[in-house]
Structure prediction request, 337 residues.
Amino acid sequence: MNRRAHRATRTAVRGGASQVPAAVPRPRQTPTASRCRRWTPPGALDLGLTVGPLRRGPGDPAFRVTPDGSVWRASRTPAGPGTLRLAVRCGEVEAEAWGPGGDWMLDRLPTLLGVDDDPSALTPRHRLVHEMQRRCPGLRLTRTGLVLESLVPAILEQKVTSDEAYRAWRLLLQRHGEPAPGPLDRLYVMPDARGLAMLPSWEWHRAGVDGKRAATIVRAARVARRLEEATAMNLPDALARLQLIPGIGPWTAAETLQRSNGAADAITVGDLHVPKIVGYALTGERGADDERMLELLAPYAEQGDGQRHRACRLILLSGRTPPRRAPRFAPKDISVL
Prediction:
């Protein structure tokens, strides 16, 4: 695949670009693995692009790419914590899992890697989208089936810089998560709903999370079981379910369902940068707002069940952004105040 299609720019990373080196031979099974599975995807699969949106920054304690071409992911499943290692060799996916949640993760491996996703549902209406679709034939929309896992980091990303949100996520997992099962060190599983709800205020402050975002996470954790039901809902109902929680708006709900449900039409609105990037990439215009972005992406809303999120991901992966006119926003560390 042409790697120039998703250079490691900040915009491309926002689109879910995660560079995975070529896989090298490994033993078919390690002694500590609870279970192994091999699966052949029905079409082209780019592992980095597919699971890349699950990575919350380069130092994510729950996600790691190793030099042997493996992607490691720690997750808290309904069956308990689990670790999943993925690698693609000769068109076949090799997967190993550890921990109580290992079987759950392996059983849902095809869904995680987009077997239910249909990239052909998108018909490009812009030259850039057509070119990126051609360059990224292995892009699939992942579906984790886990709402809280994607909701918590999405809340942490509200109205702060990416670096601030990534730092908060990293500190919360390292201080209050639990070591992930399996052979990899420094991999952590997110705290469970009860653990999040019981975190004292000073621990949120130490992680740089203000009271508003912390309170939103606590409210979501207290009704986590009802929120997880959104994975079986259609997109409008799922969006409505998440937004019943005070502090969760359209932006947070869409960012969550893009990952938990693999929602191809869950377009992100209310973002500071995405409308400007979409407007500039498609028309050369500067300063586009949500209304203009939705106008430009309207043709994709009518395709299948809607393809606006997929089209937006392809645009972000192109890395085409408006030239900067001001210094980057300086983050603030409230933990030292």
Q: What stands out?
A: The radius of gyration is 19 Å.
